[in-house]
């Protein structure tokens, strides 16, 4: 091939190369910087959101376990309180049978076997003259003075268990919000990645603006939840 023809081919290739390869404009450099900032924010926010989601989920599990443990104690106390009530009724009926039969010695034996809590109610009931007063209660268990420390403790523990369970539910809700934030951050990352595939400045800028505006939502939620934590 003659030298002039070779030079002509080289010139044509250089022209084509100049048309296909454009130096980056100032706008493209700015866009790339903003994209880098957005990606950095997304990375940090995703790590923080994932950490918080795991932490709140752990709190929910721990609180649910504490609530379940208290409920086990409630069931045990309720069972014991029920047994005490049956014992009170049984001894009282035996006392009534002995009293009605005129066996004062046997009645005194049953009375001595009353539980201390029941004895207080029994004394109040007996002072109401139940054998002559038609308005008297049928028995000590039917008056307000009849109380069970085990039953009251069971009610207190049950209330504590309910409060702890509620806290666990709230912790789970917060953890779920952090998970939703992570999903939004992944969407922002996807939009930025798609924008980087375009060479058209206008399209790339539009996608970047969309990603930045969408990023404001999870960032605001992160700052809000961070303060509540």
What does this structure look like?
The protein is an all-alpha fold and 229 residues long. It has a single domain (27-228), classed as Helix Hairpins (Orthogonal Bundle). The chain contains 6 helices and no strands. The chain has helices at 3-20, 26-100, 104-112, 116-127, 149-195, 201-228. α2 packs antiparallel against α5 (149-195) and α2 (26-100) packs parallel to α6. The longest helix has 75 residues, at 26-100. The radius of gyration is 40 Å and the shape is rod-shaped. Residues 1-10 and 17-22 have low confidence and may be disordered.
Work out the helicity level: over 70%
Looking at the overall shape, the CATH architecture is Orthogonal Bundle
CATH class: Mainly Alpha
How many distinct domains? 1
CATH domain topology: Helix Hairpins
Average pLDDT, rounded to a whole number, is 84
Q: Which shape, going by the Cα principal axes?
A: rod-shaped
Instruction: Give the CA-CA distance, first to last residue.
Output: 78 Å
Q: What is the strand content?
A: under 5%
The major pleated sheet works out as: none
Number of helices: 6
Reading the helices and strands in chain order gives HHHHHH
In total, how many beta strands? 0
Low-confidence stretches: 1-10, 17-22
Class of secondary structure makeup: mainly alpha
Radius of gyration: 40 Å
Topology:
Blueprint: H1 3-20, H2 26-100, H3 104-112, H4 116-127, H5 149-195, H6 201-228
Briefly say what this structure is.
By secondary structure, the chain is mostly helical.
């Amino acid at each position: 091939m003659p030298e002039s023809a070779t030079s002509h081919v080289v010139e044509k290739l250089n022209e084509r190369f100049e048309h296909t390869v454009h130096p980056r404009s100032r706008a493209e450099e700015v866009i790339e910087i903003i994209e880098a900032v957005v990606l950095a924010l997304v990375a940090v926010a995703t790590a923080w959101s994932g950490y918080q989601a795991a932490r709140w989920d752990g709190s929910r599990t721990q609180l649910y376990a504490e609530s379940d443990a208290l409920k086990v104690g409630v069931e045990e106390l309720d069972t014991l309180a029920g047994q005490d009530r049956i014992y009170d009724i049984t001894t009282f009926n035996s006392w009534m049978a002995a009293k009605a039969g005129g066996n004062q010695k046997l009645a005194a034996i049953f009375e001595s076997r009353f539980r201390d809590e029941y004895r207080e109610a029994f004394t109040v009931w007996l002072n109401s003259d139940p054998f002559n007063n038609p308005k008297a209660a049928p028995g000590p268990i039917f008056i307000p003075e009849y109380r069970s420390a085990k039953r009251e403790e069971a009610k207190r523990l049950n209330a504590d268990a309910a409060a702890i369970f509620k806290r666990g539910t709230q912790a789970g809700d917060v953890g779920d919000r952090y998970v939703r934030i992570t999903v939004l951050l992944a969407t922002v990352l996807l939009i930025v990645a798609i924008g980087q595939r375009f060479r058209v400045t206008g399209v790339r800028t539009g996608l970047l603006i969309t990603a930045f505006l969408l990023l404001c939502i999870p960032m605001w939620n992160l700052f809000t939840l961070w303060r509540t934590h």
